[in-house]
Design a protein that fits this description.
4CMD/NDH-1_regulator, CMD-like, mainly alpha, globular, AhpD-like, Carboxymuconolactone decarboxylase family protein, peroxiredoxin activity, 125 residues
């Protein structure tokens, strides 16, 4: 499989999940790290998100959980909370996922995750 195929497949997944916000993240990297922008599309979206083992809803729930647990990735968490909404994860499912992380990552991480969710939800129509 060519790098071009991976990039095209990744770009399509990125648009499907994150829409314009994801495109803006990639565009913001072009002037400082164009290779990293390409890697961001090819590997996570072109290779991993495109795998058949999980649907996009399940993948985004996992990403919201992981980014919440990290506790230091608020901008990325907000993008993926929006992505989760875009692929059919409900607000209640997002909140429950973040609350679950209090058990494994601590209350501060869950509180920060809930604050990120509140901010994303407030931008919704």
């Amino acid at each position: 499989m060519s790098s071009t195929d991976r990039y095209q497949r990744g770009w399509e997944k990125l648009r499907e999940i994150d829409g314009e916000v994801g495109e803006q993240v990639v565009q913001s990297l072009h002037d400082i790290a164009p290779d990293f922008a390409r890697y961001l599309i090819e590997f996570p979206f072109g290779d991993i998100y495109a795998r058949p083992g999980l649907d996009l809803k399940s993948r985004e729930i996992a990403v919201v959980a992981a980014l919440t647990a990290l506790g230091n990735a608020a901008p990325q968490l907000k993008v993926h909370i929006q992505g989760a909404l875009n692929v059919g994860v409900s607000r209640d499912e997002i909140v429950e996922t973040i609350m679950q992380m209090a058990v494994y990552a601590g209350f501060p991480a869950a509180l920060n995750g809930l604050a990120a969710a509140k901010e994303v939800f407030a931008r919704q129509p």
